[in-house]
Amino acid sequence: MIDLVAQSLFSGVLSGAYYALIALGLALVFGTMRVINLAHGELVLLGAYISYTAEEKLGLDPLASLPLALTLVVATAMAVYYLISLIKTDRELNSLILTFGIGVILTNAVLMIWSADIHSTTTPWYHDATILFDTLFAMQAELVFAALGIVLVGAVWWWLEKSWYGRALRAVASNRDAAKLMGVNPQLTEVLSFAVSGLLATVAGVAIYTAKVIQPSLGHHLTVKAFIITVLAGMGSVPGVLLGAVLLGVVESLTVTLASSALQELAGMVLFLVVLLLMPSGLFGRAKRRG
Amino acid sequence: MNNSVKIAVFLALSYVAVPLALGSNTYVIGLIVAALTIAGIAVAWALLGNLGGMVSFGHAAFFGVGAYVSALLTLRGGWPVFPAMLMAGVGAAIASVATMPALRLRGPYFALAILAYAEIFRILATELKPVTGGAAGLLSIPRLPNVLGLDFGSKLGGYFVILTIVVAAMAAYHLIRRSAYGLALKAMHDSEDATRVVGVNSIVLKAWMLMVSAFITGMVGAFNAHYINFLEPDYAFAGQWTMLAIVSAIFGGYRTVSGPLAGALVVYLVDQLAFKPILPQGHQIVLGVLLGAMILFNPGGMMSMLTAKFLRKEASHAA
User: Fold this and answer.
1) A98 to chain B: which residues are within 8 Å by CB?
2) Domain membership of residue A107 as a residue range
3) Domain annotation covers residue A284
4) Which of A31, A180, B181, B282 could form a cystine bridge with A112, CB 3.0-4.6 A?
5) Is the dihedral of CA A236, A242, A243, A248 positive or negative?
6) pLDDT tens digit sequence for A116-142
C-alpha cells in the first residue's frame, strides 16, 4: 500500500511538471492582457499533433520535432493574440467568448486534418521503464519531460525576475498605466507573453504526445486543468503555479490509485471549486479579490 | 410595424404556417425541433448573460439535470410526462442553488466554475448507477403523450411542445427585462457597486436570474429526453449543449429577445444542411468561425444588425 501511494505521488509530480508548463502560459497571458485564453489547451494539442506528423512522416524524434512545432504553434499563438487585440469593447467577456470560438476552430481543424484516432510516440525508447530507488516506476519520456518542464519553469521564473523584458511584463501585469509611463510598451509585453505561452504550450504538447496519448478533444480539458491550476496557485506567482500543478497531478493520481480512474476529473473539479469559493487568493498567491 | 403585430405574425408563422408547409416532411421538422432545442438553451443562456451579466460555460449542467429528473420521474415514479417536465425545470432550478456560491465570482471565474459544476454533475450521473443507470444510460424513456387527440409523440407534436417552451422562455425574458427587476439588472450591468449603494441586492437578483435560466434549460433537457427516449451521462451533460447555445445566442444577439432563436435556427440549420454533408469530420469549425467573427465585428449579433439596417432605411425614407 505504501508503495502504491508513493508511486502515485511520484507519477503525480511527473504529470505536474507538464501541467505547470500549460498553466504558466495561461497565467502569463492573463497577467499582461487580463484575458483567459480558452484556446490555450488547443495550442498544446496543436504542438502534440505536429510532433506526431513529424515523427510519422519525416521520421523525426519527438524532441527533434520541437523547432518545427515551436514555429507553427507560436505563429498560431500570434494569430490568437492578433484576434484578441481586435476586440474593442468589454474585453473581459468578449475575449472569453472569442477564445472559446478559436478553441472550437482549432479542435475541429485538428479533427479534420488528423481525424479522431488516438496517437502516441512510436519511438520505443520513450516508453521504456526506468526504476528509481528500487520501487518507483516511470517511463523515460516522463522523466525527460519532467526535467525539461522544471528547467523551463525555472527559466521563465528567472526571466520574469531578472531580465528587463520579464520585469517589463510583470510591471504591465501589476499596473499597466504606470508601466506605460515608465517607458514600457504594453503591446510588446503582450506579444511576448503570448509567444512565451506558445513556447511552453509546444513543449507540453510534445511531452503529452510522448508520455501519454493524444486525441482531438484533449485541448479543452487541458485548458480547464490549466485554469484550475492558476486558481490553486493564485495569480502572480511562478513557484505557486509549479506547486499548484504538482498538487493537481498528485490529487489526480492519488484518486486513481485509491478510488477509481472514473473519479480522476471529479477530484480536480472539487478541489478547484473548494479553493475558488473558499480561498479568494488561491493557495500560494498574494491577496487579490476575485468577486 | 409595432410589436404586437410582429408577435402576432411570428406566432401565426410558427404555429400555423410552418406546420402546414413542412409538417409532412419529418426530416425538416426533425431538424427544426433540434434547432429549437438549442434555441431554448440559448434563450436561457442569454437571459442569464444579458440580465445577470454572467457568461456561463456550464449550461449543460442544467440541461442534464432536467433530462434526468424528468426521465426518472416518468420511468421510476410513474409520473405523467408533462408534470414531470415541469418538475425537471424545478429540479434544475434546485441544482442551480448548489452553484450559487459561484455568483460572487466575476467573469472567467464564474464561467469556469459553472463548467466545473457541469463536469461534477456528469460524473455523479455516471457513478450513481442504482439511480441513473450509470454510463449505460436510461432506455425507453416514455415518449410525449397523446392529449385530446393530439399526438405530441410525433415529430410534429414534438415541434409544438418545444416551440411552446421556447416561446414561453422568450416571453419570460421579455417580461423580466421590462419589469422593475429588469431596470435594477440593467443598472447593475452598468455599475454593480453603484447599484448596491442605492439598495439593490445584486446577488439576490443574479440568483433569481440563474434560477430562471436553469429552470428553462431543465425543461428543454426534459423535452429532449422524452423526444429521443434515451439518455446517457455523456450525452445529457455534453459540452455541445453549452457550445451550441453560446454560438446561437451570440450570433443572433443575446441582448435581444428574438436573437437566440434566430441565431439557433440559422446556426444549426446552416451547420447541418450546408457543412455537415461536405465536412463530415470537423464541420463545427464553421461554428467557431461564426462565433469569432460575430464577437469581433458585431458583438450585438445578427438581430441588432438587422434592426440597425431597418432603422437606417426608415430614417432615409423619412428624410
Assistant:
1) 291-292, 295-296
2) 2-278
3) no
4) B282
5) positive
6) 788 887 777 777 777 777 777 777 778
Share of chain A above pLDDT 70, in %: 95
Q: What is the C-alpha separation between B269 and B277, in angstroms, rounded?
A: 12
Are B239 and A220 a contacting pair at CB < 8 A? Answer: yes
- Contact check, Cβ <8 Å, A97/B295: yes
d(C-alpha A134, C-alpha A127), whole Å: 18
Helix, strand, or coil (residue A181): helix
**How many whole angstroms separate alpha carbon B187 and alpha carbon B26?**
46
For strand A136-139 and strand A129-132, is the pairing parallel, antiparallel, or unpaired? antiparallel
CA dist., res. A248 & res. A21, Å (int) = 13
Closest Cα in chain A, distance from residue B291 (Å): 6
Name the A residues in 29-58 with CB < 8 Å from any B CB. 36
Pure H helices in A115-237: 124-127, 140-162, 164-174, 176-181, 186-211, 218-233
Domain assignment present for residue A12? The answer is yes
Q: Cβ of B105 and A290 within 8 Å?
A: yes
Taking the C-alpha atoms of residue A200 and residue B188, their distance in angstroms, rounded to an integer, is 39
B192 → chain A, closest CA residue: A291
- The strand ranges marked E within chain B are 146-147, 150-151
Residue in chain A nearest B124 by alpha carbon: A266
Q: How far away is chain B from the Cα of A183, in angstroms, using its nearest Cα? A: 30
C-alpha cell at B272: 447541418
Sign of the CA dihedral running B248, B251, B256, B262: negative
Q: Do A112 and B112 touch (CB under 8 A)?
A: no
Q: How many CB pairs under 8 A join A and B?
A: 116
What is residue B199's predicted lDDT score, i.e. its pLDDT? Answer: 66
Whether A291 is covered by a domain: the verdict is no
Residue B53 — left, alpha, or beta (φ > 0 → left; ψ -120 to 50 → alpha)?
Answer: left
Chain B residues whose CB is inside 8 A of the A115 CB are 281
Q: Please tell me the total count of domains within chain A.
A: 1
For residue A101, being part of any structural domain is answered with yes
> Residues A250-276: pLDDT tens digits?
988 888 888 887 788 888 888 888 888
- Complex-level ipTM beyond the 0.85 threshold: no
Contact yes or no for A102 and B288 at CB 8 A:
yes
The CA distances from residue B48 to A102, A180, B42, in Å, are 23, 37, 10
CATH for A151 = 1.10.3470
Cβ distance A202 to A70 under 8 Å? yes
Task: Return the pLDDT at B1.
Answer: 58
- Mean pLDDT for each consecutive 10-residue tract of chain B (319 residues)? 80 82 83 94 92 87 94 89 91 92 83 89 86 81 79 83 93 88 73 69 84 95 92 89 92 88 92 84 86 85 75 60
**B7-66 residues touching A, CB cutoff 8 A:** 55, 57
